Amino acid sequence: MQNLTQSPVLMAAKARGAVAIHALSKRFRMNGRALTVLNNLDMQIRPGESIAIVGASGSGKTTLLRVLAGLEEPDAGRVLIDGAPVHGVGTERAVIFQEPRLLPWRSVIDNIAFPLVIAGETRQAAVHRARHYLHLVGLADFAEAFPAQLSGGMAQRVGIARALALKPEILLLDEPFGALDAMTRIVMQEELARIWQEEKLTMILVTHDLEEAVYLADRVLILPREKNSPLREIHIDLPRPRNRSATGFVALREALMAEFGLH
Length: 263
Ligand SMILES: Nc1ncnc2c1ncn2[C@@H]1O[C@H](COP(=O)(O)OP(=O)(O)OP(=O)(O)O)[C@@H](O)[C@H]1O
Ligand SMILES: [Mg+2]
Hints:
Layout: H1 8-13, E1 19-30, E2 33-45, E3 50-54, H2 61-69, E4 76-81, E5 84-85, E6 93-96, H3 108-118, H4 123-136, H5 152-165, E7 170-174, H6 182-199, E8 202-206, H7 210-216, E9 219-222, E10 232-235, H8 247-259
Parallel strand pairs: 3-8, 3-9, 6-7, 7-8
Antiparallel strand pairs: 1-2, 1-4, 4-5, 9-10
The chain binds adenosine-5'-triphosphate and magnesium ion (MG).
Adenosine-5'-triphosphate is lined by residues 28, 30, 35, 37, 55, 57-63, 208.
């Protein structure tokens, strides 16, 4: 009889990029008083899943993302990536912030290739891979441009290419399109949905744009305002690519708005 644990099908199914959060708590000290920001959180994220995290301003979204990135230590509980506890930053995770923080004195291609060279790639291999990801984000013609010559949306695309070139399993994004105008934001959401599908990444996106959450996520997690309340979640079971004006989309967006008392 065939040994099932060595079946190529089962081994292929064991993809990477799983995130597990167990009893996670984070407190800060403010003016001598302890402020609980995350209280006893549990969540499980499957490899390749797309998660949006929403919540009121100050509910701890950025703090949670920084803990997942390893930029911040939790006070209690733990984060596991593919079953192993997280300690500090790691190359299997890439973080994208609202501002891409490109190096202004380096060309676009160099901004993407430079971290690869630092990571030990040859210059030739780094530039080759940088070109591939620049193409993926639709900026193949801007390799030699400098950051000051780019629009906000283009700069953010370079930031996304730079993160993807490091081949992370998990992409962590904190309001990546928050500084962009409404139309550019929609285009960028469509591109991110396509890239997420092509690269088969686990994606964890913090956003305060509820439509963006419904457009991109398999599940939307709602951080509670009351720290003793549990995390709530809404499953977005809609076919992709998603249509923002479809009845099901509108209904889920309204359900999410209702979570915040909005109509
Ligand atoms: N380094 C820090 N020291 C002290 N308090 C902090 C620190 N970082 C965050 N906080 C506090 O933790 C709480 C949550 O902050 P956080 O930035 O995670 O919120 P957020 O949900 O991302 O908000 P927003 O939607 O406005 O970005 C806030 O009350 C904030 O003042
Ligand atoms: Mg924030």
